[in-house]
Amino acid sequence: MPKPGGRKVFQESQKLGVVPPTVLDEDKAIEGRGEKGNCEMQMTVQSIFKRGFECMVLIILLNTALSGQSTVPAAADSEELRKAAQNPVASLISVPIQQNWNGGIGDHDRIQSVLNIQPVIPFSLNQHWNVITRWITPIVFQPIPETDAQGYYGLGDLNPSFFLSPKKSKVIWGVGPTFLLPTATNTTFLGQGKLGIGPTVVVLVQPAKWTLGFLVNNIWSVVGHEDKPDVNQFLLQYFINYNMDKGYYLTFQPTNTADWNAGEKWVVPVGGGIGRITKLGSQPVNINFQVYGNVVHPTDKSPWKIVAQLAFLFPK
């Protein structure tokens, strides 16, 4: 893939799967290495992400230990909430907060960190149709692979999507546009510097204890910085969930990506995890933890990924 780093950061922030980390422009990376204050700041950032991970693990452990003390809704309501939480175009307001770690970068085995805040809000058009909006806001720490401490931290490119979806259908589906907005605070290392647009489609079914489906899109750049490479990026995320007792579920959500302008185009992850639909106090939440390995990836990109997510659910 091309060297400018924002392309990989955007693909990582797009959806739920494994995406390679950014490869920084070597000359520009060297320029920032001599600043002691920047190094200290980045080490502080890494400490913050470490603390965030520890807090998320603590929340999961506490929720598991105290689940018997929560007020559990009726079985039918619980099942409906679980199906809605696993449906990307359901009539359910949710606010997922997803932490992604892409590891094994460079000779120092650096870790790229991407925190995605991605609220999903449905709107009713009429008695037959909904419009579901989904905004992905990435907060990125991009390490300099050649060093053991330095990197860049800030906001990445926003990725809003809009799905037109029928309220009733045997096969659940949604279709609409997805956008790449050049909002990164550091265009060189955290963003792609391009405005992009493309189609996105989601299709799924939910028989018995299963949720089976896929999300696919492709984005092309239309305008932006002339010194940045054009964007032509494909994404295919398939998801397989198997629901168990007490709100637990097994999940497989690998995100396959391709950069059509790159030499080594594909990232193909394999893996999965476990999750639970439950409550923190009176607040319904969806918690999950996933691990993936990239069986196909460019030679200089991350070979593995860890995902931890806490999603707040607001059923009607």
Characterize the structure shown.
With 316 residues, this protein is α+β, with helices and mostly antiparallel strands. It has a single domain (6-314), classed as monomeric porin ompg (Porin, Beta Barrel), CATH 2.40.160. It has four helices and 15 strands. It has a 15-stranded antiparallel β-sheet that branches. A hairpin with a 5-residue loop joins strand 6 (159-166) and strand 7. The longest helix has 31 residues, at 36-66. The N and C termini lie far apart (44 Å). The relative contact order is 0.20. Residues 15-45 and 61-76 have low confidence and may be disordered.
Quickly describe the structure.
The protein is of the alpha+beta class and 316 residues long. It is 18% helix and 48% strand.
Tally the beta strands: 15
The coarse overall form would be: globular
What is the CA-atom radius of gyration, in angstroms?
20 Å
Which CATH class is shown?
Mainly Beta
End-to-end separation in angstroms reads 44 Å
Q: Low-confidence stretches at least 5 residues in length (pLDDT < 50)? A: 15-45, 61-76
